[in-house]
Specification:
The protein has about 290 residues and is mainly alpha-helical. It is built from 14 helices and two strands, in the order αββααααααααααααα. It has a two-stranded antiparallel sheet with strand order 1-2. The two termini are about 30 Å apart.
Length: about 290
């Protein structure tokens, strides 16, 4: 049993890391909040003083704000749907004994370690290019007209690219959960005459509930900040401008740090609302 002295020593040893982490988080957040109340134009006069909530009003009243929020939620929802559904199917497949199982698992997980910028460039130039892309050649092979994916089907294209990156993460988490399932339950259900679909619906899927909620929570937090894939492919055009990309445009393209900082605060609020909602779901599943 830990003594009072040992607990105190543990806290003292952890204190530097905790202080550093809090500073790493709080300093940028504090500066963002401060700048959001200022008219700060680095290339056009610098700090022009306090403006109160003017930046917040301007940002939320912008014609691009609500479409950006809608695009963000569409991408998050689409990616979560694809990664969870395909992740469950892939996890079940990878759990089956097969030749070269270890190599197959490595190949499935590999896309997660590819940088988002590189991944977007590969999809843009090798697959979705309307002239020399792989999809274009397939379309011509079947006698169809190639599709300009990033302009004619921009949102599905972005969702596909991001899903390809995050599918290995979901698969890995769900595969770990499946491997922890008691095989005796499945064997007993099979002996009782339950079909494979029934075993999946009534045994496997409930067992995966916790893992699925964890995947949804973690991916949502990161997907709300999606930027690189959009910057490389569409640059926010064709209805793919997310809230993060809108903030980028306000800060770098318009050189208005105050307005962009207000957008950053809105993004933090949106992320916390979704995180609290998802945490309640996670908590319910963990309490079962």
């Amino acid at each position: 049993m830990a003594t009072k002295a040992s607990r105190t020593a543990a806290r003292l040893m952890l204190a530097p890391a905790v202080i550093l982490l809090l500073g790493w988080m709080m300093v940028p957040l504090t500066m963002t909040v401060i700048f959001s109340f200022k008219r700060y134009l680095p290339m056009r006069g610098g700090d022009l003083g306090w403006v109160g909530f003017e930046n917040y009003v301007r940002f939320v009243n912008s014609s691009a704000f609500w479409p950006a929020v809608q695009s963000t939620l569409m991408i998050v929802g689409g990616v979560l749907l694809i990664t969870v559904v395909l992740g469950v199917l892939l996890a079940i497949l990878l759990d089956q004994p097969m030749w070269g199982q270890g190599i197959v698992r490595i190949l499935v997980i590999a896309p997660f370690f590819v940088m988002p910028t590189v991944s977007a460039l590969v999809w843009k130039n090798m697959f979705m290019d309307p002239v020399n892309g792989l999809f274009a050649h397939l379309w011509r092979f079947f006698g169809a007209t190639p599709v300009s994916w990033l302009s004619e089907a921009s949102m599905p294209s972005i969702i596909l690219i991001v899903s390809w990156q995050w599918l290995p993460f979901a698969t890995l988490i769900l595969l770990t959960a499946i491997q922890s399932l008691d095989s005796e339950q499945l064997e007993a259900a099979e002996m009782d005459g339950a079909s494979p679909l029934s075993r999946f619906i009534y045994i496997t899927l409930p067992h995966l509930a916790r893992a699925i909620t964890i995947v949804v929570l973690i991916q949502t937090i990161f997907l709300l900040a999606i930027f690189a894939e959009i910057f490389v492919t569409t640059q926010g055009a064709f209805g793919t401008r997310t809230l993060t990309y809108l903030i980028f445009q306000r800060v770098l393209e318009s050189q208005n740090v105050g307005l962009g900082s207000a957008g950053g605060v809105y993004a933090i609020i949106l992320a916390n609302i979704l995180a609290l909602f998802l945490m309640r779901i996670v908590g319910k599943n963990l309490d079962r």
